[in-house]
Amino acid sequence: MSASAAVSSTCAAASSTTSRRSSSSPASRVQATPRRSLPSRLVASRTSPRSPVVPPVYATASAGGAGGTTAAAARKKLLIFDAEEYLAESLAKYMARLSGEAVAERGAFTVALSGGSLIKALRKLTESPYLEAVEWSKWHVFWVDERVVPKDHADSNYKLAMDGLLSKVPIPASQIYAINDTLSAEGAADEYETCLKQLVNDGVVAISEVTGFPKLDLMLLGMGPDGHVASLFPGHPIVNENLKWVSYIKDSPKPPPERITFTFPLVNSSAHIALVVTGAGKAGAVHKAFSDKQSSSDLLPVEMVSQQEGVLTWFTDKPAVSMLSSI
Ligand SMILES: O=C1O[C@H](COP(=O)(O)O)[C@@H](O)[C@H](O)[C@H]1O
């Protein structure tokens, strides 16, 4: 069996459009250039409301959040946008840049999607110039977490991503790694981990020399109002899993109850993490995440997002950061 056929059967690679478009320009040409970066405790750069295309926005948050060390905090950036439209444009630029860099370096771009509101924020990727410029044929797409429901179910993160992004861009179907929705949560998690192992063996997915876990190029996370990321919920024992790459829960406090999820060691081993958080309903959790008063006993899952290497970038809007006093 060829490697790609094995991957397809193990990972239940799903169908999507497979037509390829030629790249008219390298993705790196749409690279973002920092507009400003100020070294205060918590600095935000904002977009101009009049700007038709969002200027790149990079700021540095040096709060010692996420239970992290000073070094980890230094690799944490907080971007605040005046409007969700600008956030979406900047996120597309950021992803096109990372894709270009990964393809130039390794010949592949490995990215994991979450569900929820994140997917709408990815819509600019389906438009010019990203649609033509990104080397979609090099993308390998995973799910940070998935609900154990059929792929055509309204609760499926796969369906959400397929409808909002994946059906509109020419990523080969064999490189879209959906979970096997015919298995139990435990079986689906095991099989997804096996899929990742195979892709590591095939050289598609890198391994972190620091952690020994797979090192995806980009992990796209959303955050719930309770501070959960992926399907890692506050107070659930799964947040402490430190051996498995992929695990499962059957008692999610947010429906549906059965889910599989990347574990923190896998999330935190990625080269880049984007945390996309919008809306006033998330302001409390954002405030806690950037608070200096942290104790390791009551960390929200979002505070446990802390890479050993790599950069964590928060993409936020004003309502989401409205409880941060220094903004
Ligand atoms: O249940 C989930 O929720 C989170 C957050 O979703 P949001 O709609 O509040 O952005 C999401 O990141 C996760 O993938 C999903 O399964």
Concise account of the structure shown:
The chain is α/β, with parallel strands linked by helices. It is built from nine helices and eleven strands.
Give structural notes:
The model is unreliable at 1-10 and 14-69 (pLDDT under 50). The strands form three sheets. This protein has a six-stranded parallel β-sheet with strand order 1-11-10-7-2-3. The chain has a three-stranded antiparallel β-sheet with strand order 4-9-8. The termini are far apart. The protein has helices spanning 3-11, 70-74, 84-106, 118-121, 130-133, 157-164, 185-201, 264-267, 283-289; strands at 76-81, 109-113, 139-143, 145-147, 206-207, 214-215, 218-221, 246-249, 259-262, 272-277, 311-317. It is an alpha/beta fold and 327 residues long. The protein has a single domain, classed as 3-Layer(aba) Sandwich (Rossmann fold), CATH 3.40.50.1360. The protein contains nine helices and eleven strands. Ligand LXAUTJHC binds next to loops.
Radius of gyration: 19 Å
Tally of individual domains: 1
Just give the CATH class: Alpha Beta
Share of helical residues = 10-25%
Overall body shape:
globular
> How would you state the average pLDDT, rounded?
83
Distance between the termini: 56 Å
Cofactors, ions and other ligands in the entry: the ligand O=C1O[C@H](COP(=O)(O)O)[C@@H](O)[C@H](O)[C@H]1O
Domain Glucosamine/galactosamine-6-phosphate isomerase: 84-314
GO biological process, one term: pentose-phosphate shunt
Pathway: Carbohydrate degradation; pentose phosphate pathway; D-ribulose 5-phosphate from D-glucose 6-phosphate (oxidative stage): step 2/3
InterPro entries: 6-phosphogluconolactonase_DevB (IPR005900), 6PGL (IPR039104), Glc/Gal-6P_isomerase (IPR006148), NagB/RpiA_transferase-like (IPR037171)
